[in-house]
Amino acid sequence: MASSEGESHAEKSAESARHVAPPKGRHSSSGGSRHPHRHRPAESGLAAVSPYQRGPDPTAASVAAVTGPFAISSVAVARGNGFGGGVIYYPTDTSQGTFGGIAISPGLNGTWPGIAWLGPRLASQGFVVFGIETNNLNDSPASRGTQLLAALDYLTRSSTVRTRVDAGRLGVIGHSMGGGGALDAALRRPALQAAIGNAPHLPSGSLAGDRVPTLVYAMQNDTLVPPTRLTSLYNTIPAATERAYIEVAGAGHNYIGQPSTVLARTMIPWLKIFIDDDARYSQFLCPLSNQAGITQYRSSCPLISTTATVSRGP
């Protein structure tokens, strides 16, 4: 079942006008201020082409594909710098400028290899993806949030691929306690462009302070973090924050441990819309273009990026 949340485009525009000043801390980590208004370039009378747009025009087949349009490589990172190491996957193409960066955390007792399919799947769509190991297998969501932020700082400041990453276009993803870590990171660093929690465990149970576009996945048959708990968590996200909720049919808590087209074809558009300001991907989420494998979908459509017109580095 797909649904909008009843917030019209006009209401969103009025809401944007009321929030003229950017929230505290709402600046990119590269030093540029985020634009305070939410809008699509086309709706401002400008060409609907983002300077951060990467890759060919998307299709239903391309967002579901195992391999995207970009050739990729990877580099291993040793333990240290505030997290337990990991692997960075990145597009080898240097002709299109820098790419947005994403850090991903596994869950309790999990390691990066358990969800490593996400690395090449997302990187080949035009992102620099850092799949991290945590300092300890039982690290709390808050600790995982700290480690995700440390990983992004390392990625953009010290890594061997730092010149390929736009430090002002970053996102976080996590599973279970790692999902709680991703949401915790978003609460602490509102300059992030996107956050995705997959069956996230967030002890506080509240995202009332969330300013980052947030996608929450629930698994229909999850008994550890059941959909009822995640629906309640999702309902705490402020009305001014872009958001979506997806319940995956028949899935258990560790569904993400195997490659999933359902996750990929919804996750990639979310990241493209908010990290790349790429309105071409709105067609897949507003409305949901493919409901196969999804029992519930809610969103704040139309999904409007706040990254447009922000001046960033090369």
Automatic annotation (TrEMBL):
InterPro entries: AB_hydrolase_fold, FrsA_esterase, PET_hydrolase/cutinase-like. It comes from the Bacteria. Keywords: Hydrolase. The keyword Hydrolase applies. One of its GO terms (molecular function) is carboxylic ester hydrolase activity. Residues 1-18 have a biased composition (Basic and acidic residues). Residues 48-302 form the PET hydrolase/cutinase-like domain. Residues 1-43 are annotated as: Disordered. Belongs to the AB hydrolase superfamily. This is Dienelactone hydrolase.
